[in-house]
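Per your request, structure below.
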């Protein structure tokens, strides 16, 4: 059940980002998506979802896009993200 829920959540985010592939995300959209993706990943990992499901191709696509968007914002708007990042806090 949790695997399907997690996979479905990542698929929705991935599709939403794909629909906006040619657009840069607003800083508020980026901050919100980073929080959602990181929290979803951590919560489902705690629920016992397997690494293979957590680190799916869909998750990798979402993570890569948000990382690129984060880098763009950090160059164009230094204070925009206010410490919110895709990098894990335990790294």
């Amino acid at each position: 059940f949790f695997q399907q829920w997690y996979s479905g959540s990542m698929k929705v985010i991935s599709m939403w980002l794909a629909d906006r592939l040619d657009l840069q995300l607003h800083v508020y959209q980026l901050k919100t998506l980073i929080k959602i993706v990181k929290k979803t990943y951590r919560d489902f990992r705690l629920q016992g979802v397997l690494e293979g499901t957590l680190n799916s191709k869909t998750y990798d696509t979402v993570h890569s896009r948000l990382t690129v968007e984060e880098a763009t914002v950090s160059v164009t708007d230094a204070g925009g993200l206010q410490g919110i990042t895709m990098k894990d806090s335990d790294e």
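Residues 2-76 form one domain.

Regards,
D.
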